[in-house]
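quick q for whoever's on today - can somebody do inverse folding on this one?? i tried earlier but teh output was garbage lol. tokens:
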């Protein structure tokens, strides 16, 4: 488990379920922290799970009815879901900030949800597409985050809007 907090009080928790995923934690953390900053989202928490194809296939089948692995899945946090761990996580930081900034409190932290990234799937896709794995990991991290923020791609209109936002985010991160 790795916790990353930025100057904007955002927290990205990365859980490396799949072995040998340590090299990817930095790309995911950097992408999500910079994306949240670009989107002007403050005091949010996102949990990211780096998993294998088998686990991804299980989740995809259970929650989407598709019996195959995929690159990324996102699950938004139910409204009013209690997060006692967030209170513990932010208590020390809030004490430090309370002397310099007003209005940041534990209750202001919004847990957006969970992003699952299938690292072996993404690595294979990168190989097939002759694209750097870090680029696809960046794209799918953004894609997952946008889902947590309410973007969808079920209709053509939604897909166009989401793809436009993804491109904007990629350009903003360069």
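ok took a stab at it. sequence:
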């Amino acid at each position: 488990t790795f916790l990353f907090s930025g100057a904007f009080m955002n927290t990205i928790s990365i859980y490396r379920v799949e072995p040998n995923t340590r090299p990817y934690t930095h790309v995911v953390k950097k992408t999500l922290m910079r994306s949240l900053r670009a989107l002007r989202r403050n005091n949010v928490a996102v949990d990211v799970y780096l998993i294998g194809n088998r686990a991804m296939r299980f989740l995809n089948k259970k929650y989407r009815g598709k019996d195959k692995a995929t690159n990324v899945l996102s699950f938004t946090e139910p409204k009013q879901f209690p997060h006692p761990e967030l209170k513990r996580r932010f208590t020390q930081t809030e004490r430090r900030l309370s002397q310099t900034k007003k209005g940041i409190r534990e209750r202001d932290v919004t847990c957006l949800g969970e992003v699952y990234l299938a690292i072996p799937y993404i690595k294979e896709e990168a190989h097939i597409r002759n694209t750097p794995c870090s680029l696809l990991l960046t794209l799918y991290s953004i894609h997952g985050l946008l889902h947590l923020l309410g973007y969808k791609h079920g209709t053509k209109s939604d897909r166009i809007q989401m793809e436009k936002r993804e491109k904007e985010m990629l350009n903003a991160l360069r």
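fwiw The radius of gyration is 16 Å. also Confidence is low (pLDDT under 50) at residues 87-107. so keep that in mind when u check it
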